[in-house]
Design a protein that fits this description.
The complex is a heterodimer of chains A (about 425) and B (about 300).
Chain A: E1 7-14, H1 20-30, H2 36-48, H3 64-69, E2 76-81, E3 86-93, H4 99-107, E4 111-117, H5 124-135, E5 140-146, H6 155-172, E6 177-181, H7 205-211, E7 225-226, E8 229-231, E9 243-247, E10 252-254, E11 258-262, E12 267-275, E13 278-280, E14 282-284, E15 288-293, E16 304-307, E17 315-324, E18 330-331, E19 335-340, E20 343-357, E21 363-366, E22 370-371, E23 376-387, E24 400-404, E25 411-419
Parallel strand pairs in A: 1-3, 1-4, 4-5, 5-6
Antiparallel strand pairs in A: 2-3, 7-16, 8-9, 9-15, 10-14, 11-12, 11-16, 12-13, 12-15, 17-23, 17-25, 18-22, 19-20, 19-24, 20-21, 20-23, 24-25
Helix pairs in contact in A: 4-5, 5-6
Chain B: H1 19-37, E1 41-44, H2 49-62, E2 70-75, H3 81-93, E3 98-102, H4 103-109, H5 125-135, E4 139-141, E5 158-161, E6 189-192, H6 200-210, E7 221-228, E8 231-233, E9 247-253, E10 266-267, H7 273-282, H8 287-291, H9 301-308
Parallel strand pairs in B: 1-2, 1-4, 2-3, 4-6
Antiparallel strand pairs in B: 5-6, 7-8, 7-9, 9-10
Helix pairs in contact in B: 1-2, 6-7
The chains are: A alpha+beta (about 425), B alpha/beta (about 300).
Chain lengths: ~425, ~300
């Protein structure tokens, strides 16, 4: 197998009965990614339940409660490969009570597959899934209209659903949607082209996954380097070595670049870039590297190194869209910890201007008073120290943050910055 | 390899990273996060290929400085001698500190009882969790991969454990972007899995690319084995062939390394890493399906053992 192929990270979202587990099982099965012992285990378990054939959903539901209830509770990560590309799939449950899992899966995805049942068309859940893909800025959206076999593979059914979904997606700011008519159960247009839908001339789900452009704009954005760790051997061999270790969050860094360290504002020049033992002239996101600078200045974990010409502003007042992930509600005046890049600071919630109703586009419910679990809304926070936020629209990594409960360390919310000046 | 921006099939992006580089970069990011956030991290080191790759990544992540973590080996007392020799060699070569939690000591003290079937894998949990408590380790790296088993597919990269080491799937913290949350109360610790997104094939391809030395048992060799159920087991201090089981000499290799009593060998003629990769690519069985008896107990076997504090 070629070791230089790329990777696509994608997510699937679908409601309980849309057949999402069957679609994922079908992708794994038909791309020959399911091995004999896994299939035998599924066949055994299906037979024990008195089912006729192997239930492909059992390939993916890993927890006992999920198998017993026939539902997906948590995000599951799955791996498969074709000769053209490797895939990391975040398989997320689609029910409203698991909005947080969908947000989690979407946060690292470059593409999301949204499933609908051809008999039901676009429902409240579908609008929620589209809104989450839009909020998390997943670059590519696929609408898989499933169970076409139950509507006699009729084109008008598919066309109506695709049209309705595309219209609401563009209102949400999703630039383009690829709609594919499928039957996960029968295998139409998942891996193999359908023999029942001559009217459809587009790619199968797998063909689309193999060819969609990846690694979009990460390297083209302004460079951002959150410092994770300072490497100082202090050995006889390397008495004065001081390297700043981290993963480039966006953009390209080059030897000779003038840089600014935030929040201190100190400046220096990159004199060396080391990619895990190999000196290079330039490196880009998402490479893990070590930077060497011309000046011996005070830099530690939590600082951000950026090109002087494109350094972000720092602020203590951040306006963001947050997805609330925890059973403990958040109020105005709630005291939290905010983790941005490699820095964690104290923060307080100043305002909760509105909650978003995902099922009606992105409608606002003003002054909600508190955010409960699975709520999504806007928030204004004040941080104890200045932070170099980017807008989430410009950078998914330096524009995002977590809110953490100082009492028990639990993750409370995931935030996406509107921009440094709020 | 890491420096050439090449035009790859299916992308128009000159900055796309080949998938092994992307996995390496992500794993190094995870290792460095732990170094920055925790007081006493330790790498669980079995001498198996996944923990060897983890150590290799740690050496790269902090070079030219030494690895800021010690190693912990849970010794079942039924190890392959080749693996113990390898472990001791690596510790000396890189000037590392090794902690050993010994199942045999617990059995000798009467704190654990030998199972009738002779397998000691399930007995590792208590020595492991007690060593974590007594040494006050706050982060424990494991080589676990999400592709290994269905319950592991739900595992976080940072997995919070209580003082008993227990994993509660319904109480897992959400994990978004590349923001890992390592906060924990005294007595709790975090298990960290830098190879979460790697597959078995990725690990082998990376070993080949980096020229990483492995214990010899991963390659084809002559060995006395006997058939038990679907596994070729090697007799040793743990026991051997029972009634109706015959020992024979076969050419075999191991796909995983664990307790000798439940780790089976596969028939193989692969003596080079390229041949091993060819065999794995062609194999229709997962590595655990082919070689591990302990995962087969029930549909929920792995989930139950993770809840108890097993990795």
């Amino acid at each position: 197998m070629d070791t230089t192929i790329g990777t696509l990270r994608f997510a699937t979202a679908g409601s309980v009965d849309d057949g999402k587990s069957t679609l994922v099982g079908r992708l794994l099965h038909d791309s020959k990614s399911v091995l004999t012992d896994q299939l035998e285990a599924v066949e055994r378990a299906s037979a024990n339940r008195g089912q006729d054939g192997p239930d492909l959903a059992l390939l993916t539901d890993g927890l006992r409660a999920e198998r017993e209830q026939g539902i997906t509770i948590d995000v599951a990560y799955r791996y498969f490969a074709t000769p053209r590309r490797r895939f990391i799939l975040a398989d997320t449950p689609g029910h409203v009570q698991y909005t947080r899992n969908m947000v989690t899966g979407a946060s690292t995805a470059e593409l999301t597959v949204i499933l609908v049942d051809a008999r039901n068309g676009v429902v409240e859940q579908t609008r929620r899934h589209a809104a989450i893909a839009a909020l998390l800025r997943v670059p590519h959206v696929v609408l898989a209209v499933n169970k076409m076999d139950l509507v006699d593979y009729r084109e008008p059914v598919f066309a109506t659903i695709a049209e309705e979904f595309t219209a609401s997606a563009s209102e949400l700011g999703i630039p383009e949607v690829t709609a594919i008519p499928i039957s996960a159960l029968a295998g139409d247009n998942v891996v193999e082209p359908s023999a029942h839908m001559d009217w459809y001339g587009g790619p199968t789900v797998l063909e689309h996954l193999e060819t969609v452009p990846v690694g979009t704009d990460l390297a083209r954005a302004a460079a951002r380097f959150p410092v994770q760790y300072v490497i100082r051997p202090q050995s006889d061999e390397h008495p004065d070595y001081r390297g700043y270790a981290g993963q480039i969050a966006s953009g390209v860094l080059r030897v000779g670049d003038p840089v600014t360290v935030l929040p201190s504002g100190l400046t220096s020049t990159i004199t060396g870039i080391d990619v895990l033992g190999t000196p290079v002239d330039r490196a880009w996101a998402p490479q893990s590297v070590t930077l060497l600078l011309a000046d011996d200045i005070d830099i530690s974990r939590g600082d951000l190194i950026a090109p002087s010409a494109q350094a972000p502003a720092t602020t203590q007042d951040v306006r963001a869209t947050v997805c609330h992930l925890n059973e403990r509600p958040l109020h105005v005046s709630s005291r939290v910890l905010l983790k941005h890049g490699t820095r964690t600071v104290k923060a307080v919630v100043r305002e909760l201007p509105h909650r978003v109703d995902l099922t009606h586009g992105l409608a606002h419910d003003t002054d909600p008073g508190e955010f409960a679990v699975n709520d999504i809304g806007s928030m204004v926070l004040h941080t104890a120290e200045p932070l170099p936020f980017d807008a989430y629209a410009d950078s998914r990594l330096t524009g995002s943050f977590l809110l953490i409960n100082p009492a028990d360390g639990a993750v409370l919310a995931a935030g996406m910055c509107a921009g440094a000046d709020g | 390899m890491t420096v050439a921006a090449k035009h790859m099939a299916g992308t128009e992006n000159p900055y796309a990273l080949p998938h092994l580089d992307a996995l390496e970069s992500e794993a190094v990011h995870i290792l460095r996060e732990v170094a920055g956030e925790f007081e006493r991290p330790v790498i669980l080191f079995s001498g198996g290929k996944d923990s060897i790759v983890m150590l290799h990544l740690a050496l790269k992540a902090f070079a030219p400085a030494p690895v800021p973590f010690s190693l912990l080996h849970v010794d079942t007392g039924h190890n392959f001698p080749e693996v113990i020799e390898y472990r001791d060699r690596v510790v000396v070569a890189h000037g590392l500190r090794l902690h050993v939690a010994s199942v045999q000591d617990y059995i000798d003290r009467g704190a654990l009882r030998e199972r009738p079937d002779g397998t000691r894998n399930p007995l590792q949990t208590v020595p492991l969790t007690e060593k974590i408590q007594s040494e006050k380790f706050d982060a424990v790296f494991g080589g676990g991969r999400r592709d290994e088993e269905k319950a592991r597919a739900k595992e976080r990269v940072f997995s919070l454990r209580d003082e008993f080491g227990a994993w509660e799937p319904r109480r897992q913290r959400p994990e978004l972007w590349n923001l890992y949350n390592g906060r924990h109360a005294p007595g709790e610790h975090v298990r960290v899995f830098p190879l979460s997104n790697w597959t078995e094939l990725d690990v082998w391809q990376y070993i080949a690319r980096e020229g990483i030395d492995l214990p010899a048992i991963y390659y084809a060799h002559e060995r006395e084995v006997f058939r038990r159920g679907e596994l070729w087991l090697a007799p040793g201090s743990w026991g051997g062939a029972g009634d109706g089981e015959t020992v024979e000499k076969r050419q075999v290799r191991y796909r995983t390394v664990g307790d000798m009593s439940c780790t089976g060998a596969v028939d193989s003629g692969a003596v080079t890493i390229e041949q091993v990769i060819d065999e794995i690519t062609a194999s229709r069985l997962t590595e655990r399906g082919a070689t591990r008896a302990d995962d087969k107990l029930s549909e929920a076997a792995m989930e139950d053992r993770k809840r108890e504090g097993y990795f």
